[in-house]
Structure formats: structure tokens, C-alpha cells
Hints:
Strand content: under 5%
Largest sheet: none
Number of domains: 1
Distance between the termini: 18 Å
Number of helices: 10
Low-confidence stretches: 1-5, 7-16
Number of strands: 0
Amino acid sequence: MGYHLGMLSRTLRAPNISNLTLKGILIQYFVQYGASYYGGGPTDPNQGPAAFRIPWAIQIIPAAILIGGLFYLPESPRWLAVSNRWEDALRVLADVHGNGDLNNPVVLAQYQEIEDVIRFEREEAISSYAELTKPRILKRVILGMSIQMWSQLCGMNVMSKLS
């Protein structure tokens, strides 16, 4: 469940249009802390696996909300821009972050950032997975993969991204 939910939340539209909040991370930490006392507490050598399974099971609730609400989310502004649908990208940014105002400073800043990144990627032709195995970037890739793996294993991905 965690792997597939992580794939959904990383590759689909929600992270591109949502703001990361501290609230979700704190909720997950409190859930994990409380669950650690189930079955005798963290110092009990006979503590069962429920202490780590409870936080994983709680993730089913936001996972169901994510899967059900997925069909109502707008397209990713970055994907629209990569597909040369710049006006649609600006409209989505304005609807999500500017209450429909195309001239909102936050909307324009995000639009400019997306435009700059896409222009850089096209100029540098950085679009293959082979680039990730080059020595200058491989350590960063391994670090990013490790962080993602451990965030999935501790069960905080859904709580931090969708709370």
C-alpha cells in the first residue's frame, strides 16, 4: 500500500498544486509516538508488530480520499507547460493559488519558475535517466532515494503531503 500510494502522490497532480504543511508531519509523529506504546511500549522486548502496523493502517484513510478525489484535481501546471499548454498552466495556477486572478504575484512567480525550469531542461537536454548515473549526480540520487525510502517505511508520506 505504501509503495503504490507513494507512487500516486509523487507522480500525480496533488503535490504540484498543494502546499506542504507542518501540520501533517506533526500528526504523523504523534500517531507514531502513540502507537509505539501499544503492546508494552518501546522498551518492552516482547512488543508485537502492531506498533509499526498501526501508523501504516491509518494511512488507508487519506489513501482512499486521495484515490477518490484524484478525478477532481486539475492537471499539473508543470505538465501542461511541458506539453506547450502555457495558458492552461497559468489558468490552473491562478485558480489554485490566486483565486482566479491571473496577475496575482504568487501565481506569476510560480509560473515564471516553471517557465525557467522547463527552458533550462530543454536547453541542457536533461531528460534521460542515464543522466542520473553520472558520477557528479549519483550521490545526490542515492541520497534522494534513501530519504524517500525511509519516509515511506516510517509511513509519513501521506500524512505530510495530504493532511
